[in-house]
Amino acid sequence: MSSNSNVGDHRTYEAGDQRNYSKGEKQEAERYKEGQPHSHLAQDSKDERSIANKLGREEKRQNEPEPEKDMETKQSKIDPTLPAKAHGNEPSSGAKKDKEIEDEEAEMLKKKGAFGPQ
Predict the structure, then answer these.
(1) Do residues 40 and 47 lie in contact, with contact meaning Cβ atoms separated by under 8 Å?
(2) Residue 106: what are its φ and ψ, rounded to 5°?
(3) Which of 67, 86, 66, 68 is nearest to 76 (CA)?
């Protein structure tokens, strides 16, 4: 019927975009992103993994060592102003207040004395 049509060019109706593939061509074709690593998020509530798979992953996670923290994170646990000072910057007001609070708490603990067996 397309040969009798007055709309458009006859080349637009040829099989370029409406091709039927044979079974052999389908089996040889590369699968689209099948089984990509890290394709499942552990805390994704909409993930359709089975409960057994989720439990298995949690068991593996318990046996894994904790990831190493970078130097700045370690420094900020010791003193909130250290990371900024290490980069040659003035610490932020929040870091300064955190440092003041830590110092006050340490002073209060010294006044109260040691608690428990040592």
Answers:
(1) yes
(2) -65, -40
(3) 86
Write out pLDDT tens, residues 12-28: 666 566 667 788 777 77
30-59 tens-digit pLDDT = 766 666 677 767 677 777 778 888 888 888
> Of the candidates 106, 102, 67, which has an alpha carbon nearest to the alpha carbon of residue 81?
102
State both tokens at 48: 């359709």
**Domain ranges for the chain:** 71-112
Distance of alpha carbon 44 from alpha carbon 10, whole angstroms: 50
- Contacts (Cβ under 8 Å, ≥6 apart) of 21: 29
* Cα 87-91-104 angle, rounded to 5 deg: 130
Going by the DSSP 8-state scheme, the letter that residue 48 receives in this structure is -
Of 115, 75, 116, the closest CA to residue 98 belongs to 75
